[in-house]
Amino acid sequence: MAAYEFLEFAHFDGAVVPFSQANVSVATLALQYGLSVFGGIRGYRAPDGSINIFRLRDHFTRFSRSAGLLKIALPGDIDFMMNAALELTRRNAPGSDCYFRPFAYKSDLSLGPSIGHPGGGFTIYMLPLGNYFGGESRGLRVQVSSWRRVADGAIPARGKIGGAYVNSAIAKDEAVINGYDDAIMMNELGKVAEGSAANLFMVRDGVLITPGITSDVLEGITRRSVIELARDMSIPVLERDIDRSELYIADEVFLCGTAAQVAPIEQIDQRVIGDANRPITTQLRSRFESVVRGQDAKFAHWLTRVEIPALVSAD
Ligand SMILES: Cc1ncc(COP(=O)(O)O)c(C=O)c1O
Fold it and tell me: For the residues 70-79, what does the mean pLDDT come to?
């Protein structure tokens, strides 16, 4: 398993501190019961050294809604959290593409597993991040998991809730042990939900299809972006249930998410999906890449540009 190197500073309860000081007690409810919510945001480094953060406001909007689901008090509004991320970016001055992990949690040192406890902690930390899935040379090989995606009636599925990631973690582990790159999880109704940490799209007869947001999927921001880009490119889009057997006969299938970006799938359960051309996935992937790299004027409003102050020389 890859060990990550974190960037030097973190935002921790209102102050910028060295990452090693952004810590909590082992008795924290967040740690005991997964009473936490998080975000995952990408920053793309431009040739001039500035960082373009992708859909920052949308990420903090979802983050704030996830916190609401667990009654976690945040330290301020969305602008406050965005500003904390901007300040941290300037302090960390990333030398490569990077990833932000905002995290809010029940900070009480207590015993009972209730979301009624009042304490709320808030932090953001950062790490350099290139490709989440190995190389770009081949599509992903995935398996349909024997684990079901957590149902909204058990743990709110549309929020990024810490404890719910036990579900992703066991599905991912099973897939990797079996020699696959990732898992596709079905929901409790037996319909396709999503990957372990990414939403899923398939293409059938020129139509882009993805499970609707009431299918126990995370309301992914990349998912929404792909739908908006497809509509802009006159690719028909449908949000509807997907059967497992449709995956096997689909022309194209891909995963998408902040970490995964747009990741084509080559095989599912050892069945080859479509052919290697994947015209719609390829078009969407390259459009997405131009958008995040700041090369698409039409979607430039999805980026928040952070100028990195020049390093002051020590001598
Ligand atoms: C379970 C799950 N589904 C989907 C996604 C994709 O969401 P987004 O595009 O907002 O990153 C993620 C994570 O990032 C995830 O953890």
Answer: 97
Cα of 240 vs centre of ligand 1, distance in Å, is 18
In a domain, 283, yes or no: yes
Binning pLDDT at 50, 70 and 90, where does residue 133 land? confident
Domain membership of residue 305 (yes or no) is: no
Pocket test for ligand 1, best of 64, 217, 258, 261 (most atoms within 8 A of CB): 258
Do the bridges between strand 182-186 and strand 140-148 make them parallel or antiparallel, or are there none, so unpaired?
parallel
Within this chain, do residues 155 and 71 fall inside the same structural domain, yes or no?
no
Among protein residues, the one with the nearest Cα to ligand 1's atom 7 is 220
Which pLDDT tens digit goes with each residue over 192-223?
Answer: 999 999 999 999 999 999 999 999 999 999 99
Asked whether residue 73 falls in the same domain as residue 51, the answer is: yes
The protein residue with its alpha carbon nearest to ligand 1, atom 16, reads: 197
Residue whose tokens read 């404890």: 163
151-184 as b/e: b if 16+ CB within 10 A: ebeebbbbbbbbbbbebbeebbebbeeeebbbbb
Count of domains for the chain? 2
- Shared domain check, 46 and 112: yes
User: Do 285 and 177 lie in a common domain?
Assistant: yes
Averaged pLDDT of the chain: 95
